[in-house]
Write a structure and sequence with these properties.
With 379 residues, this protein is mainly α. It contains 16 helices and four strands. It has two domains: 252 residues, Fido-like domain (Fic-like fold); 73 residues, Arc Repressor Mutant, subunit A, CATH 1.10.10.10. Helices cover 59% and strands 4% of the residues. The two termini are 36 Å apart.
């Protein structure tokens, strides 16, 4: 294969990597079983996982929004404010919605054209990023602290051919999906085919590969939340794998191990959250009943107990996620008034800033358990 079509290859997996994959798959199978049951808290957890993923991925690029605004974007509702960060998150959400829908196509194929469409949707709010176009020139990844270039991408004439090669490889890849997805991420970051947005594109592509494999519901398979919470470590591993220039013959083992660890931690964390949500749901149902509140209010009590600010719009979305029912704005207002009057929620702010938070009475219902240390699969 000539240099124009040579991408970074997956490392040969050893016993340690295979053992790690086995552990991750066991946890993911358990998650699949638990999330397949028609339980009201599952829809709630799926929505929260989606919100955490888009917040995490965009925060890496400096587009930071509140949990409430990210939830509003996911719901297609009005955010508390409009900003470039909100526009970025909204574009990212549209791109993710598009790829997860495309992943269901039985005739799906990866192509550079597909990557361009995803890039356009992801960066359409910023035309300086040349949405939907392969970069017009050289590309450098600059250290924000020092202002110095840390990585130089392949020559511009190689950008499109390498993107083509990556897509051809993904169309025929038959390896372990967790590894294929990680390598798709690494290749796109290192090829850097676009002027801007390559990191977001790489993370979307990783999730798309996982979605195509059918290993798990995409919201629960993504590691974007983990990457957003460990941005420096993410930058460090990308910096250390491959050196300062495009090198298709690099050893990607450390990167694959990093992603496998991230999958293990994320899946373990989601398992714990589901267990806690299941336990809490029964407690909150009793609290709502004692307060004379409709049982649909349990969804928003759960949100508040998790530390989220609740607004009228987010309440409507919580009910929809948990029950599948669409309620009117006035119904939401009435329900929230009952929760405030009963002492389960405290009202804060006014007008556009009006929101609700968990009261001391509600907080007392949650049993905080010390977090168990996460295990490094390769120690």
């Amino acid at each position: 294969m000539g240099v124009h079509g040579q991408i970074i290859k997956s490392p040969r997996l050893g016993d340690a990597e295979r053992a790690a994959i086995k552990k991750i798959i066991q946890i993911q199978r358990s998650l699949r079983h638990r999330t397949a049951e028609p339980r009201r808290w599952v829809g709630q957890m799926r929505r929260q996982a989606q919100v955490a993923a888009i917040r995490g991925s965009n925060s890496i690029e400096g587009y930071v929004v509140s949990v409430e605004d990210a939830a509003a974007v996911v719901a297609g509702a009005t955010t508390s404010e409009e900003s470039v960060a909100v526009e970025a998150v909204r574009s990212y959400q549209r791109a993710m919605t598009y790829v997860l829908q495309a992943a269901k196509d039985p005739n799906f194929e990866y192509s550079t054209g597909l990557l361009k469409v995803i890039h356009f949707i992801t960066t359409e709010f910023d035309f300086d990023a040349h949405p939907g176009l392969i970069r017009p020139g050289a590309i450098f990844v600059v250290n924000a602290a020092t202002g110095e270039a840390e990585y130089t991408g392949p020559d511009v004439e190689l950008a499109a051919p390498l993107a083509d090669a990556l897509c051809r490889h993904l169309n025929t890849a038959t390896g372990e999906p967790l590894v294929d997805a990680a390598m798709a991420h690494l290749n796109l970051v290192k090829i850097h085919p676009f002027k801007d947005g390559n990191g977001r594109m790489a993370r979307i592509l990783q999730t798309l590969v996982l979605a195509r494999s059918g290993t798990l519901v995409p919201e629960f398979a993504s590691i974007e939340e983990y990457l957003g919470a460990h941005t420096q470590g993410y930058y460090d591993i990308l910096r250390s794998v491959g050196g300062p220039d495009w090198a298709p013959d690099l050893d990607a083992r450390d990167w694959v191990r990093y992603c496998l660890n991230a999958h293990h931690i994320q899946a373990t964390m989601l398992t714990r959250r589901l267990a806690e949500a299941e336990e809490l749901w029964g407690i909150l149902e009793n609290a709502a009943s004692d307060a004379g509140a409709n049982d649909r209010s349990v969804a928003v009590l759960h949100d508040a107990l998790m530390g989220h600010r609740v607004r009228n719009s987010s309440y409507i979305e919580s009910v929809k996620s948990a029950t599948g029912s669409q309620i009117a704005k006035q119904t939401a207002t009435n329900d929230l008034r009952v929760l405030v009057d009963s002492g389960l929620l405290d009202s804060r702010g006014a007008n556009r800033g009006a929101h609700y938070v968990a009261s001391d009475k509600l907080l007392a219902l949650r049993k905080i358990r010390p977090a168990k240390p996460m295990v490094d699969l390769f120690d």
